[in-house]
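Endonuclease V
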Amino acid sequence: PYIPGFLAFREVHVLLELVEKLRNNKPEFLPQVLLVDGNGVLHPRGFGLASHLGVLTDIPTIGVAKNFLQINDGPELTMAKVKTQCHKLLQKGGDKLPLIGDSGTLWGMAVRTLDTTTNPIFISTGHRVSHETAVAIALHCSLYRIPEPIRQADLRTRSLIRRRQE
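Predicted structure tokens:
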């Protein structure tokens, strides 16, 4: 079952197996960076699915979350405060809100990907990628709210599940 904050323990082994299969059978197709549908350092323990996968594969990873997972680093990083700040400050596509705690840690960025979207995505470094690079790559890959590699993975897996249920 899905338990918030523990996604990596449920999914990292499957993703690791797929990356290793690609590395062994088709190394020419091994990506230079992985966009992961989950958090990197923007995580209650500072180490989400993107971080786990990146460390285990030694491939640069970027965490891209559709929802904010609350961080215990001061009153500014609550779900309510972040939602209010995003609504107020993210006015157009490409706008970013640094998510900085009382400790001074930059946990990630809330990003409005397009002018036509209102809900942000939450981007954080997973492994061997700066926050600035993570945001630039995610924005470059966004034709819709969600970066295209993650969006396509979602669409294709949902289609596969529907076909198997028929």
